[in-house]
Amino acid sequence: EAGVTQFPSHSVIEKGQTVTLRCDPISGHDNLYWYRRVMGKEIKFLLHFVKESKQDESGMPNNRFLAERTGGTYSTLKVQPAELEDSGVYFCASSQEGLAGQNEQFFGPGTRLTVL
Amino acid sequence: GESVGLHLPTLSVQEGDNSIINCAYSNSASDYFIWYKQESGKGPQFIIDIRSNMDKRQGQRVTVLLNKTVKHLSLQIAATQPGDSAVYFCAEVDSGTYKYIFGTGTRLKVLA
User: Fold this and answer.
1) Which helix (H) or strand (E) holds B46?
2) B8 by DSSP, 3-state: which?
3) Which in A23, A62, A73, B85 has the greatest CB count within 10 A?
């Protein structure tokens, strides 16, 4: 079974440009999460989808970030306009509903975003 | 992929020795804990988990210990191998919110 996939693996853009990251979760997983890791720091939660609905977007840094999950399958994360501090690795994870809320999240390989 | 962070705490161990990686968590409501391993260019991969009603859980060559009194988690790797070299993250989970909170990570270097 295919794991979580992300595209692109790397993206280098200039400040002010727009970038769209894509995540394809494991088939059948209703939960989809976006995380970000800035160099040398912890992996930080951005938001959580349950199917096509945003369950929790408390980690989104600001309104330059827009996440969508139309149809409840793949998700996109758009950054517009990108700023230097947006550089980092963006991870996507997916999970099924687990017992007592303990649902293992499976991570994708990440998209490394560099804003120049 | 991602290169390893330059300023991560680093643990260097000799091949064949045991490794202990520590993690402090912050939320008393967290009731589920997970250790992840991240190799260069890959996403975090699940290693082992533990629920808050346990204080120890063993896997293959790995053991997780949980001390809820001091909010401390550790990962023990027996007979460390070169393939264990990676960045290790602990994550705490509040099963009410499903939100994962990750630690900063520790880089494990295995010396031949």
Assistant:
1) strand B45-51
2) coil
3) A23
How close A18 gets to chain B, by Cα (Å)?
A: 20
Closest to B1 (Cβ–Cβ): which among A103, A107, A112? A112
The upper half-sphere exposure of residue A10, i.e. CA atoms within 13 Å in the direction of its Cβ, equals 6
Residues of A in contact with B97 (CB under 8 A): 56
CA distances from B77 to A4, A89, B60 (A): 27, 27, 9
SS3 string of chain A? CCCCEEECCEEEECCCCCEEEEEECCCCCCEEEEEEECCCCCEEEEEEEECCEEEECCCCCCCCEEEECHHHCCEEEEECCCCHHHCEEEEEEEECCCECCECCCEECCCEEEEEC
Convert the pLDDT of each residue in B53-83 to its tens digit.
999 999 999 999 999 999 999 999 999 999 9
Closest residue in B to A48 (Cα) is B99
Query: Does the distance separating the beta carbons of A100 and B1 come in below 8 Å?
Result: no
**Contacts B51 to A, Cβ<8 Å:** 102
Question: What are the average pLDDT values for consecutive 10-residue runs of chain A, which has 116 residues?
Answer: 91 97 94 90 91 92 94 95 96 76 81 97
Q: Which of A35, A39, A109 is the closest to B1 by Cβ? A: A109
Give B38's strand partners: B87
